[in-house]
Amino acid sequence: MDETPKGTAVNSPGPLAGIRILEVGVMLAGPYATMMLADLGAEVIKIEPPGGEISRQVSDSYFASLNRNKQSVCLDLRSAQGRQALGELVAESHALLVNMKPSAIRRLGLTYDALREFNEAIVCVALTGFGLDGGDDPAFDYVIQAATGVAAMTGDPDGPPTLPGYSSVDNSTGLTAALGLLAQIVSGRGGQVDVSLRDVMLSQLNYRASAFLNDGAAPRRYPMGAHSYYVPAQLFTTAEGYLALFITHDAFWAAFAGEAGIEGFPTMAERAARRDEVLAVVTAALARDSAANWEARLKPLGIPVSAVRTLPEALAATPEVVVSAGRFELVRSPIRIAGYEPVYRAAPQLDEHADVIDDLARSAQSAHSSHSS
Length: 373
What we know:
Elements (H helix, E strand, L loop, with lengths): L19 E5 L4 H11 L3 E6 L11 H8 L2 E5 L5 H12 L3 E4 L3 H6 L4 H4 L7 E6 L12 H7 L20 H20 L3 E6 H8 L1 H10 L17 E5 L4 E5 L3 H11 L7 H6 L1 H12 L4 H8 L6 E3 L3 H7 L4 E4 L2 E4 L23 H18 L1
Parallel strand pairs: 1-2, 1-4, 2-3, 4-5, 5-6
Antiparallel strand pairs: 7-8, 8-9, 10-11
């Protein structure tokens, strides 16, 4: 039996071992980006202001969920001493990721143009609301959902605009920023990477935006979150609970219709053209059994289906995704690489790794002495 403890390294170092990334991040998007990289083996140094990054004030579990596997160094970047220490870190790092207002990023000297004197190869990623040249308007997750059309296309047709129950904009932008950072490192060139919350969300509206730009088809809301192309693909009320059913092609429909006792509508085109009729018969059929039973009946047929679960229910159903990081239970990295299992370390205490600066200074002094001799 494999007795390797859960959450320990297996055969190889992480794929990003040897990569040092600096983070000047606040709240969610930036810290989430660098945590994903830290989980893959990168050394991430979180640079915090005196008093700590603001998300430390939200809750201990909030901070832990976004900052595991990092080091913490406290620097006052408004001071000459803090900027000098930052330069020493930049000289020995591969990338810096920062999410702040553009004016603050420039004022604190956190751009490539300001830092290239310390390291021509440094990759500087600016994660902002509207781009480095997009101004300083406050940009938070819900604001961007409203600004990009996401809220307007979400919810029932006769109801108000709706927001999802989690930070979809921040998380999506964090992942995109991590991708941009790695792409520029792989290129072998230093430089500025510019990622904005607004642009990421508009990009993720891909086929919705394309339908409007090319066909003039503005998004519309359908009841129960129904898909604009596929029918039936939405939530349904059952005899007990709600069911998500996603029929994308005719083979799925044939299998579902056979189990549900429905006749007709054999093609995707016919189902789309006769949407209301299809939904009426599907709704009536699904009302004859519970969501849990429908899932149990339809999954063995290969049909995309799930009963609607709460988060506690979803976590209870997938205990393998929960790992320990210090005293906190967290959801593990979604990236699984053969031969590598992250070691999930607790989020750092404020300035826990202050000696990193001293070590770099000693290293630089030693290198200078060797060169002089």
